[in-house]
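Give me a protein, keeping tokens residue-aligned:
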Amino acid sequence: MSAPKKRTLLGLLGATSALALLSGCSLKSNDISGLGFPKNTSSVNDTSLSLWQGAWITAGIVGVITLILILWPAIFHRKNDEKKGEFPKQTQYNIPIEVVYTVIPFLIVAVLFYFTATKESKIVDLKTPAQHEISVEGIQWSWQFGYPEAGKNAVVTGTPENPPTLYLPQGESVRFTITSNDVVHGFWIPAFMIQMQNLPDRTNHLQFTANKIGTFPGRCNILCGRNHAQMIFKVKVVTPEQYQKYLNSFKVGA
């Protein structure tokens, strides 16, 4: 193999190795971002962040290897054939390679499916008792949040002009009952790595714990009509004491 070819091949392998090393660091370091998501904001982040990182790392490694497999014959074999003045040898099939190309993607999908199903079962867990209950109903084009433990009248209904605020207690688990009044909506809190569909003919459930005090944006992420862009809300995470005061405010106003 000539020196230029060796340098090119070493460069490609070096890029692959660098990506793998950086990928490994991203799983272990506590000082870097979660590939676009903050860490420890909610229990869903704690559950899903490693899955999110692993999926992107896997995609990156597969992409680099695929690129090398494409460039190698396109560059090196073409030069050899041009020098010889011969038409490249044509191969009808190669059973071992075709088996490998089938088995490897199957294994990748199977592993990702296993970890996705495992993580999802924790997020939609209905067996572990939650400390609080909140209902989330999507309506064209805003949101309605209900707090059953504060009574039947403990309901906050927003409008496109006046988006509602969803209050959550820090460090305490909340089970959400998610429904829709009309069409399909998407209950989405990006910072919490949470998305669950509001369906008009089915009730979905979600359970998580908010870990950090603060205000976070939320919105509908499924096109649901002409005012879809105005289906926004705020998530305000407060201390358990402040959350209890908020629930008591409904009882006082009743």
